[in-house]
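5'-methylthioadenosine/S-adenosylhomocysteine nucleosidase
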Amino acid sequence: MTLGIVAALHEEIAQLLGEMAPGAHVERIGMRDYHVGRLHGEDCVVVLARLGKVAAAATATALIHQFGVKEIVFTGVAGGLAHGLAIGDVVVADALLQHDLDARPFFPLHEVPLLGQARFATHPALRENLAEAARRYLQTEMAAQVPGDVRAAFGLTVPRVHLGLIASGDQFIGSAARLDELRAALPDALAVEMEGAALAQVCFEYDVPCAVLRTLSDSADDHAHADFPLFLRAVASAYSHGIIRHFLALRHR
């Protein structure tokens, strides 16, 4: 059974691609490079989707149709929405919705037209394995893999794993005003990003199990852009590699 692994930014899968490279081959479809090979004993296709919902949907569709993947996991960064979350925490989605989808008055706010639902659940086993993999990585490896000065700069002390709703939209949320709007509209949402709900909708329509993992890089407010390149390079890359490695190991216990 082939697993698809997707990210929006190169740094989020760079270490995975490096580990996969010796025996992998690359197929280019729709301006994307699909790396086909094995990771820790599992057949995988790893691909950079690029940013946004359309990019994620197109990539997920190609994974299903062209490569026959049976499950898809998305890994990357997100902004925190809920109070009490911290930079460096991990959110694993139990469901996703598109916060910028509004077809009123014909359909309820956030509902996908003609599908009759707004929230798309992730696969229980996949998300539980991802959450457990994140816990193991944070408890056993994170401090050794993320340099001390970087951990100090971002306040990474005891990162936690959260399970809950993730909101997606074709917007970078970088203002306190917009953050407050989203909190009011979606009081149970934990994080906000730009791809996950689109991928989850495609997987729902094709009956392919999926899961979404997000490392919190900011609090989606007026300071959301601060030091993002450093976080992506020094923290998110290590998180994605370590958590996915533990995830694959859990699947072969």
